[in-house]
Amino acid sequence: MIHLRHHRSATVLLLSLALFVLFPSCAFADVGVPLIAVTFPSMILALIPIVILESLVLARVLGYRFPRMIVPTLIANLASTLIGIPFAWLVQLIIGLCIHGFVNVPSTSFWGKVFSVTVEAAWLTPYEDKLYWMIPTACIFSMIPAFFLSVLIEYGVIIKLYDETTFLTTERDELKRGVTSANVASYGLLFLASIIWLIVSIIGHTG
Q1: Is the pLDDT of residue 58 over 90?
Q2: Distant-in-sequence contacts of 95-98, Cβ < 8 A, 24+ apart
Q3: What is the share, in percent, of the chain residues with pLDDT greater than 90?
Q4: CA distance 131 to 202
Q5: For residue 89, what are the contacts with CB-CB under 8 A and spacing of at least 6?
Q6: Nearest by Cα to 121 from 194, 26, 182
Q7: Residue 82: is its pLDDT beyond 80?
Q8: Average pLDDT over residues 13-30
Q9: Is 74 exposed, middle or buried (0-12, 13-18, 19+ CB in 10 A)?
Q10: What whole-number distance in Å separates Cα of residue 191 and Cα of residue 179?
Q11: What confidence score (pLDDT) does residue 118 get?
């Protein structure tokens, strides 16, 4: 009976998260905004240009031809997007909830809003009239853990896709450097897009 109850609770949680991801409009301002409802669909849409960009960088660093890196880069990015992004969001959410339990910041103060877009970026506090700048700002801060997790996952996936004879021990350092450089390029592009989104949101709100 206890196992059944836990199973039902987990099912309800997963369905709720699925609704937030698939239908961002369900994230009503009065209950806060789960950031994954914004970032996950955007990452899916950006997958193809990111794969092309990272393939180019990896091919250049490793000295391979560009077409050879497309398939492993695509598979690695699918793994980092479908597994890494939700996992990074979940970890960020748990850390935010833990810190929130020990830190008491007035929610209506300036520092309360700063606290929300940094520590509590995974699930934004429902400041209805401030979400226009808080959501893109939270996206920027959330890229930090997502970047490191993406590097780890993509390196692990690519190294598994090839035989040991393909990437010799001496080449693994080059692969790590290539994957890191590729993610610096892709996350740099996403960071720039988020900065532009933030600026446009602020101008549009004040204009």
Answers
A1: yes
A2: 95/119, 96/120, 96/121, 96/122, 96/123
A3: 38
A4: 10
A5: 34, 35, 36, 39, 122, 142
A6: 194
A7: yes
A8: 44
A9: middle
A10: 18
A11: 81
Give yes or no for residue 142 having a pLDDT over 60. yes
CB 113 within 8 A of CB 130: yes
Name the one residue in this structure whose structure tokens are 């339990």.
101
User: How far is the C-alpha of 14 from the C-alpha of 19, rounded, in Å?
Assistant: 9
From residue 121, alpha-carbon distances to 27, 98, 128, 185, 190 in Å are 14, 13, 15, 23, 17
* Phi-psi category of residue 132: left, alpha or beta, with phi > 0 → left and psi -120 to 50 → alpha: alpha
Burial label, 121 (beta-carbon count in 10 A; 0-12, 13-18, 19+): buried
pLDDT tens-digit profile of 147-198?
A: 999 999 999 999 888 765 566 555 788 899 999 999 999 999 999 999 999 9
Bridge pairing between strands 123-124 and 33-34: antiparallel
Q: Which two tokens stand for residue 133?
A: 């700048």
Tokens 């391979």 belong to residue:
64
Distance CA 73, CA 179 (A): 9
